[in-house]
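Predict structure. Input: pyruvate decarboxylase, 372 residues.
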Amino acid sequence: MDTLTLPSKSSLSRTDSIQSFTVPTSVISSPKATLGSHLARRLVEIGVTDVFSVPGDFNLTLFDHLIDEPGLNLIGCCNELNAGYAADGYARSKGVGACAVTFTVGGLSVLNAIAGAYSENLPLICIVGGPNSNDYGTNRVLHHTIGLPDFSQELRCFQTITCFQAVVNNLEDAHEQIDTAISTALRESKPVYISIACNLPGIPHPTFSHEPVPFALNPKLSNQIGLEAAVEAAAEFLNKAVKPVLVGGPKLRVTAQDISTMLRLGQKTIIFLINNGGYTIEVEIHDGPYNVIKNWNYTALVDAIHNGEGKCWTTKVFCEEELVEAIATATGPKKDSLCFIEVIVHKDDTSKELLEWGSRVSAANSRPPNPQ
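Output follows.
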């Protein structure tokens, strides 16, 4: 038996501390452990049970090994950006998250989500299925690239928004690179990038039976008194507002596809869509015809995505009384369904504070150049 310092299941809350316990040698040592199974096992050991993914030909073999890990679920998403944001939300809830995409076409698509996780200090493991290890240095032009024989473009992009980058294109240092990346993500509370050559996941190597580079979730202790004071201050601020700040509609257009994923997985989420018919915040900063967009019937969109498969309930509300009734239905008779509530508000339903903020941003953006 070997003793490791690993997070307990309860420590997946970002406010809990680490716990030492004993892991059977069989869990961490297998003479036939492959690179793919090694990575999958490491994810489980740090508390990741769901990896948000989009398949592509460079990561398919790796996905086979992730699926084979009993403690891991591979959650297929509709696009890479959504996978990244799902991993972001998972990290906020559980303490660490993971997404897996394919080389360049997938890696470049997930960048915004990884950058957001970096700015929010979230440990997120971004796994990319990379080119065959034999293709490095051959001057070949591959698909999924920008038409150049240089495979480093994706890596260079990730270097600015991750705290560690591991390009695994040989087996000898794969164990150290993967474990160091994971350890660094947890220690720094930032995203990391791990690229795995597509021909390596199924190959065993003696180093994959080694113990991991030490890692643990750092305790993130909350100041309960300060937290309660902040909640009270926020509530007081909102209660004094002339009208609450409401945003919504256009943002759903980016992520609506993965409502289908939520339905497929039987999620019982309540989604509130605030439909104010356009880009209200931008209007307060600088108005113009570009802030006007074609309004959608969002409930009908979700009904189309539902298509009679799974449990889904949608409604559209126009006043406070209808909203109260909709919430009662969503938390009562329809609590076993995914519930989508579209709230129709006037495009000028804006708080005094937002109006003032818009004026300040507009003034800051329009400052003339300093004299040369």
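Residues 224-240 form the longest helix (17 residues).
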